[in-house]
Amino acid sequence: MRIAKTEKPLGAAKIGAAPAAAAAAPTQPAAPVDEVSVLGIPDAELTPKVRAAVLSLLEDVRNLRAELDQSRARIDELENLADRDPMLDMLNRRAFARELDRVLAMIDRYRVRASLLFIDLNDLKQINDTQGHSAGDAALAHVADILSSNVRQTDVVARLGGDEFAVLLMQADQAVAAAKAAAIAELIAEKPVAWDGPAFSAAVSWGAVQIRKGVSAQEALNLADEAMYEAKRMK
């Protein structure tokens, strides 16, 4: 038996389909000019003088924020300069003392191991007197470059002043620190100093001490300094 097809009434909508008129969202009319607001205040409620004053204040705030950002950037720059040696690309004594204090706190609280190297460039005055200060500067840069290139990222290298350098070795005991200092001293002596003049080699004296719990930053530096001078006297 054949079932006859039922004809749909003309104009009937499909189930679930929205009417054509409802398919497109009505376009919102643009806000009239008098509804444009400054700081949430409708423009219609602002007198011309008040509006001008508010806009002027907003401009002042933007300018002050820009000046504050510039000041912060300048402060960061100055703080970085205050922590860097003016001649060599490394920390200075001020920054090193701060890092040493931080490590001393870790030693006291967490019982981490750390050692301190005190390194002295030998005969800097003689180099300056015989070959000129540019040669002395080159010798200092030579030591700084080898020190910085032969430590880990967790270690800290600094020029304390004059011909004195310091290295803070993390997770290193006395034996490891002494072996590291000896290896660095050998590298410094083996490689000629790069400069525009007669070739010469630099030599350093060093002292190594493991930092003990309870000592101050200055006491740790003094112990490493004494170890360096003791090694220099024994030569």
First and last CA, distance: 121 Å
* Largest β-sheet summary: 4 strands, antiparallel
What share of residues are in beta strands? Answer: 5-15%
Number of domains: 2
Low-confidence stretches: 1-24, 30-36
CATH topology of the largest domain: Alpha-Beta Plaits
N-to-C series of helices and strands: HEEHHEHHEEHEH
Q: Which overall shape is indicated by the principal axes computed on the Cα atoms?
A: elongated
Class based on secondary structure composition and strand pairing: alpha+beta
Taking all Cα atoms into account, the compactness measure Rg is: 36 Å
Assign a percent range to the helix content. 40-55%
CATH hierarchy class name of the largest domain: Alpha Beta
Number of helices: 7
User: Superfamily at the CATH H level of the largest domain?
Assistant: Reverse transcriptase/Diguanylate cyclase domain
CATH architecture of the largest domain: 2-Layer Sandwich
List keywords for this structure.
elongated, 235 residues, four-stranded antiparallel β-sheet, Alpha-Beta Plaits, 14% strand, disordered N terminus, 7 helices, 2 domains, alpha+beta, two-stranded antiparallel sheet
